[in-house]
Amino acid sequence: MQAAMTTPLQVNLDYLAAKYARNMAQGMVGQNYGRRDDGSPRGQVKGEQARNIVQKALGILQESGIYAVVVWLLSKTGDVTGEQGTWWQNCNSEEEFCSLTVLSGLFQLANEPQLAPIGIALPEEVGTKLWQINPRQNKVNILRHFSEAITANLDRLMFIRHLYEQTLIYALFVTKALA
Q: Mind listing the domains of the chain with CATH numbers?
């Protein structure tokens, strides 16, 4: 009798994709961003803007790959910094806020503890919580990680590309549902 074959990583990837997609979408649609001089928010993210960023990110991922989508999302961010719960005050536009939210969601997914054996987690010097990400300071480290740890290894590249694609597809549908 042949022994049952087991894989070293038994994780429900569909569940993780859905979980992080929901968090991304809920972190965008209807959320305040930026601060005016009087302290009031610049505005709230409309479902259409959130959906637009997710759809573009998905298209770039599918057409050009994982490195391209990370570079594109980084290109949409400015110098957003801040403490937990306040970083959004420094966003200048819905596009910047949504790009940071998607980028952060993808980074948090890569750092999911269940995926640790795969080796796709971002290094410690790159903040992985939404309020810790400071793209201007970390862009070099982020790009180095994706070029050296992700794209240099075909198995990791295909794994994370599939996982990010499924997550963005779900996020696209969730943003439509929340709009």
A: 18-178 (1.10.520)
- The closest of 16, 84, 20, 79 to 54, measured between CA atoms, is 20
Tell me which residue has tokens 């994982």: 66
Whether 3 shows a pLDDT value over 70: the answer reads: no
Q: Rounded to the nearest 10 degrees, how much is the dihedral formed by the CA atoms of 15, 20, 24, 29?
A: 30
Phi and psi at 23, nearest 5°, equal -60, -40
Detail the DSSP E strand segments found in 97-163.
Answer: none
CA angle 142, 143, 145 (to 5 degrees): 65
Q: Which helix (H) or strand (E) holds 35?
A: strand 32-35
How far is Cα 75 from Cα 126, in angstroms, rounded to an integer?
Answer: 17
> What are 25-57's pLDDT values in tens digits?
999 999 988 878 787 888 899 999 999 999 999
